[in-house]
Design brief:
- The chain is α+β, with helices and mostly antiparallel strands.
- The chain has a domain at about 5-80: Orthogonal Bundle (Arc Repressor Mutant, subunit A), CATH 1.10.10.10.
- Helices cover about 30% and strands about 20% of the residues.
- The chain contains four helices and six strands; from the N terminus they run H-H-E-H-H-E-E-E-E-E.
- The strands form two sheets. A three-stranded antiparallel beta sheet has the order 1-3-2. Strands 5-4-6 form a three-stranded mixed beta sheet, with no helix packed on it.
- Helix 1 packs across helix 2 and helix 3 (about 40-50) crosses helix 4 (about 55-70).
- The longest helix has 13 residues, at about 55-70.
- The radius of gyration is 17 Å and the shape is globular.
- The protein starts with 5 loop residues before the first helix and ends with a strand.
């Protein structure tokens, strides 16, 4: 359920333009209380069930999409089959560990992207996502 530290999450939601409903507050606490991390909707749903937060998987998806649209999360899609939500919204890249289905941040400064093409007229690059896939040697 919601802890006493929820007022910080309430402020975070309000600043992002989201109404701090009971479910959003509980999900925000689950998502952000542990620092930066990557989570799927299914994993967050399992955490909510373990924390006795009564919420459906559909509500989890809706909240994650709302948090992403509000800039609180960053969506990272792996071949369109699996979507992770990253609490670190800064510009950074990822390792995807095959077999473990785990996403890990690439440390800052360890990757340079060169040879970026010119954008069409009237467009600008929003961000560049690099996912380096790893498997056991």
């Amino acid at each position: 359920m919601i802890s006493e530290g929820t007022t910080a999450f309430e402020g975070k939601l309000r600043l992002s333009g989201l109404r701090p409903t009971r479910q959003r507050l509980a999900l925000a606490e689950l998502l952000f209380a542990q620092g930066n991390r990557h989570v799927t909707a299914e994993a967050l749903h399992a955490e909510a069930v373990m924390a006795n937060v009564p919420v459906s998987l559909a509500t989890i998806y809706n909240a994650l999409n709302q948090f992403t649209k509000a800039g609180l999360l960053r969506e990272v899609a792996i071949e369109g089959q699996k979507t992770y939500f990253d609490t670190n919204t800064s510009s950074h890249h990822h390792f995807y560990i095959e077999g473990e289905e785990r996403l890990v941040d690439i440390p800052d400064g360890n990757l340079r992207v060169v040879g970026i093409p010119e954008t069409p007229t009237g467009k600008k690059i929003d961000r560049i996502d690099v996912i380096v896939r790893l498997r056991d040697a």
